[in-house]
């Protein structure tokens, strides 16, 4: 049987709106390299496969999210490479606002300096604020951003392949440094990019870095099926998650790719207590740190709707949600919330508590045994190949998971007990 994949997602302020206010939170570490070193060390103690940095290149509209990802991902992970030994280093990069040649050399450099542990999460970015930082008065249409992303990834792969395995010779006696016949220009000229190549950074230790993707739209799924080693997904319902994974694999089989089936890793916010009651009490405590008026404002911004006049204990106004064809941001978030809010018993207060003002990631709230059982259920029934772990409070939420849930997953026989060899590559093979 395959082994559960776990990525540790870095966010110094935690993954709930008010989590940074909790007594055990350490938001002061958001700009401190030692904090990130400790976070990475804790993640390696939990045998996580990857250390994942999410990022949008703009200050968020929500002033409680200004420190969401305040450090540039590739620089941060490069700084963490020497203090880690096994964990993958996965940086989020926007294909809309960067050039593939620069990113190819940056990620290839990280891959060399980390001994083959680099990965890149390619996103198309649905943030108008980010667009204005790069000269866009308005974002390019969704379809155009994905067309650019397709060409972008194609160029990345070709650049990483522009050095052959036998390119480096280093024969001092003969005076031969490289086999120049194995360093080949890519001569790319497309709709969005013209890149002569070859890359100035030699071939990566394992051929190329890993590729992640986060889109859930039809175009996003097609891109993932064509290129990705793994997808960072959003899911609330186990049946929907199985359908998503199956559809992705069907798309992959229908294409020309000979890669292993793309791994599907939903975001998960585990809230762990010694008992179910203690975990639920912690969940309520975390929720209370985010005042309803702030939660409503953030939810309105996230979903692009007006919640004026809706009482906290009134049914959530599903009819106010925009059509998915009009959504420019995270389509997966809209879809997840739409599925969640269906039914007259779902109130605005309930939505604020469970989605935390628009954070539509799955939550398992309970004892270590409960959380481990739910993870096992999703994994063994084909809903997920693993999870991207997003602690509600950092770093204490990660510590709780590592200390109390990971051993139970190991006892179940679905999670490794040690890193072995090229652990990152093996996890995604």
From TrEMBL:
<feature type="domain" description="Luciferase-like">
    <location>
        <begin position="21"/>
        <end position="383"/>
    </location>
</feature>
<protein>
    <submittedName>
        <fullName>LLM class flavin-dependent oxidoreductase</fullName>
    </submittedName>
</protein>
<dbReference type="GO" id="GO:0016705">
    <property type="term" value="F:oxidoreductase activity, acting on paired donors, with incorporation or reduction of molecular oxygen"/>
</dbReference>
<keyword id="KW-0285">Flavoprotein</keyword>
<dbReference type="GO" id="GO:0004497">
    <property type="term" value="F:monooxygenase activity"/>
</dbReference>
<keyword id="KW-0503">Monooxygenase</keyword>
<feature type="binding site">
    <location>
        <position position="146"/>
    </location>
    <ligand>
        <name>FMN</name>
    </ligand>
</feature>
<comment type="similarity">
    <text>Belongs to the NtaA/SnaA/DszA monooxygenase family.</text>
</comment>
<feature type="binding site">
    <location>
        <position position="142"/>
    </location>
    <ligand>
        <name>FMN</name>
    </ligand>
</feature>
<feature type="binding site">
    <location>
        <position position="217"/>
    </location>
    <ligand>
        <name>FMN</name>
    </ligand>
</feature>
<dbReference type="InterPro" id="IPR036661">
    <property type="entry name" value="Luciferase-like_sf"/>
</dbReference>
<keyword id="KW-0560">Oxidoreductase</keyword>
<dbReference type="InterPro" id="IPR011251">
    <property type="entry name" value="Luciferase-like_dom"/>
</dbReference>
<dbReference type="InterPro" id="IPR051260">
    <property type="entry name" value="Diverse_substr_monoxygenases"/>
</dbReference>
<dbReference type="InterPro" id="IPR016215">
    <property type="entry name" value="NTA_MOA"/>
</dbReference>
<feature type="binding site">
    <location>
        <position position="92"/>
    </location>
    <ligand>
        <name>FMN</name>
    </ligand>
</feature>
<dbReference type="Pfam" id="PF00296">
    <property type="entry name" value="Bac_luciferase"/>
</dbReference>
<keyword id="KW-0288">FMN</keyword>
């Amino acid at each position: 049987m395959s082994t559960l994949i776990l990525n540790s997602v870095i966010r110094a302020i935690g993954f709930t709106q008010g989590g940074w206010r909790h007594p055990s939170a350490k938001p002061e570490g958001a700009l401190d390299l030692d904090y990130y070193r400790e976070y990475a060390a804790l993640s390696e103690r939990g045998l996580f496969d990857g250390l994942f940095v999410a990022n949008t290149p703009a200050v968020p509209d929500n002033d409680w999210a200004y420190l969401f990802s305040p450090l540039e991902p590739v620089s941060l992970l490069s700084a963490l490479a020497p203090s880690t030994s096994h964990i993958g280093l996965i940086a989020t990069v926007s294909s809309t606002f960067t050039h593939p040649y620069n990113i190819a050399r940056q990620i290839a450099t990280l891959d060399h300096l980390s001994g083959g542990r680099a990965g890149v999460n390619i996103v198309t970015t649905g943030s108008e604020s980010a667009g204005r930082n790069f000269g866009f008065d308005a974002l390019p249409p969704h379809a155009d951003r994905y067309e650019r992303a397709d060409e972008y990834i194609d160029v990345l792969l070709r650049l990483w392949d522009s050095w052959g395995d036998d390119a480096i010779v280093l024969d001092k006696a003969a005076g031969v440094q490289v086999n120049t016949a194995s360093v080949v220009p890519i001569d790319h000229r497309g709709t969005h990019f013209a890149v002569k190549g070859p890359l100035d950074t030699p071939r990566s230790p394992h051929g190329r870095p890993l590729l992640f993707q986060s889109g859930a739209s039809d175009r996003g799924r097609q891109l993932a099926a064509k290129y990705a080693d793994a997808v960072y997904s959003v899911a609330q319902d186990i049946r929907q998650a199985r359908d998503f994974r199956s559809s992705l694999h069907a798309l992959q089989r229908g294409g020309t790719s000979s890669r292993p089936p793309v791994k599907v890793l939903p975001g998960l916010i585990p809230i762990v207590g010694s008992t179910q009651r203690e975990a639920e009490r912690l969940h309520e405590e975390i929720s209370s740190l985010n005042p309803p008026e702030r939660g409503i404002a953030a939810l309105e911004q996230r979903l692009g709707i007006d919640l004026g006049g809706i009482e906290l204990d009134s049914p959530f106004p599903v009819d106010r949600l925009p059509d998915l064809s009009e959504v420019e941001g995270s389509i997966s978030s809209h879809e997840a919330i739409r599925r969640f809010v269906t039914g007259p018993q779902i109130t605005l207060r309930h939505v604020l508590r469970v989605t935390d003002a628009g954070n539509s990631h799955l939550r398992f709230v309970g004892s270590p045994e409960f959380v481990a059982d739910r993870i096992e259920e999703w994994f063994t029934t084909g809903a997920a190949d693993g999870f991207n772990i997003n602690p509600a409070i950092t770093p204490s939420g990660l510590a709780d998971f590592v200390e109390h849930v990971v051993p139970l997953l190991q006892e179940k026989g679905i999670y490794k007990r040690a890193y072995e060899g090229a652990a990152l590559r093996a996890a995604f093979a």
